[in-house]
Amino acid sequence: MTTHLDSLKNYSLVVADTGDIDAVARWKPQDATTNPSLLLASAEDPRYQPLVDKAIREADGDVGCAVDALFVQFGVRILKHVDDSIKKIAHAREGRYELVVLSDHGQIDTIPFTQNSDSAF
Questions:
Q1: Phi first, then psi: what are they for 32, rounded to 5°?
Q2: Whole-structure pTM value
Q3: 8 pLDDT exceeds 80?
């Protein structure tokens, strides 16, 4: 049985705007976006307490690093449930996609991603 959401995906790009990893997993959007206020709300949710604990533990007392680490953890987990958008973009760019990480702590060198790459997102 085709749902309304499935029908919508035939004509539109469905994008989740949330920090709720479970919602993204349930609805399987084609792309996702979030923002600090949505991530803060999710960080207060008991389901995601392990992510908060891990970010704090790994930051060694640096609040900025803890926030950055937490946002990255949410982003990685959200993208695991997105409908292969990165692969589609890479394919459209002839198999090359460059991941750029922006942070107030400096820029990290990027490595081109190809479908044959062992890199995991």
A1: -150, 150
A2: 0.66
A3: no
